[in-house]
Design a protein that fits this description.
The protein is about 10% helix and about 35% strand. By secondary structure, the chain is mainly beta. The longest helix has 9 residues. The chain has one domain: PK beta-barrel domain-like (M1 Pyruvate Kinase, Domain 3, Beta Barrel). The mean pLDDT is about 95. Strands 1, 2, 12, 13, 14, 15, 16, 17 and 19 form a nine-stranded mixed sheet that branches. The chain has a three-stranded antiparallel sheet with strand order 4-3-18, with no helix packed on it.
């Protein structure tokens, strides 16, 4: 196995950037989910998991790191992330502010994605989910600091990788069964000189089904995992899953083409 591609998403729930290398520290991918929009009214982190309010974020793109992060709006305007809140408030129809650090106990709304397949604006219960429970520091990751996905799983589902928003896509040999990531829970993964440990199967929400830039909606991006890979996720219940969350054991730099092994 080897690293097929690497991705970073500087602003939570926006499109990100594909890179040839990623630097990992003890808190995960440097520059990944470093920023997020926060609802000025309720103080909740904006995420397209609640498509009723936030799906337009996936029409925006973020790139860069630190103070150089820029946001490209659907109309083509490029703004420094630090100065983009007003324009994004107009786009979303809700007042938001840009935050550079996850507050303790930060939450998002996460309605059951299967209840939204036919109507993204359906008025369904939206439980609050605390993010970053498996990640130290202040980044706006959903749970653990690194998200991996194999080409075996992607090929079986017939879904574009960017819909699932992984940091690392692992190329697997021909004939590898899909959803092998389930078997990596608790095991050590070595990617080049970086070591990770699998922490949770990755539950799938509404995000993969939404429009991503020019990509249209794809209900199959949720239906596939729902039909083929429902997993008992510790602490969260039995959920449709595709991919693996992991924590960092030994930081370093990941590069496309680096070998991948599982201990």
């Amino acid at each position: 196995m080897k690293i097929a591609s690497l991705r970073r998403y500087p602003v939570k729930s926006m499109l990100g950037e594909e890179l040839t290398s990623l630097t990992l520290d003890g808190h995960g991918v440097v520059g990944d989910r470093a920023l997020a929009l926060v609802d000025a009214e309720h103080g909740r982190v904006a995420t397209a998991k609640q498509p009723r309010y936030w799906r337009a974020l996936l029409r925006c793109r973020s790139a860069g790191s630190g103070p150089a992060v820029r946001v490209t709006l659907p109309d083509g305007r490029s703004l420094p992330a630090a100065a983009a809140a007003a324009a994004l408030s107009d786009l979303l129809g809700r007042p938001v502010r840009m935050s550079a650090r996850r507050a303790d106990g930060a939450v998002v709304e996460r309605p059951d994605p299967e209840q939204l397949l036919d109507d993204l604006d359906a008025d369904v219960e939206a439980p609050l989910l605390e993010i970053g429970q498996g990640t130290p520091g202040g980044r706006f990751v959903d749970h653990s600091p690194v998200h991996l996905l194999t080409t075996a799983t992607l090929d079986a589902l017939g879904v574009e990788a960017l819909r699932y928003r992984p940091n690392v896509v692992v190329a697997t040999p021909e004939g590898t069964p899909p959803f092998m990531e389930n078997d990596w829970l608790g095991r050590e993964l070595t990617l080049g000189g970086v070591r990770l440990v699998g922490t949770l199967p990755t539950p799938r929400c509404s995000v993969p089904t939404l429009e991503h830039g020019d990509l249209p909606r794809s209900k199959e991006a949720l239906r596939g995992p729902a039909e083929r890979n429902r997993v008992d996720v510790p602490g969260f219940g039995v959920l449709p899953c595709a991919g693996l969350y992991a924590r960092v054991e030994a930081p370093g730099t990941l590069r496309c083409g680096d070998p991948v092994s599982v201990g």
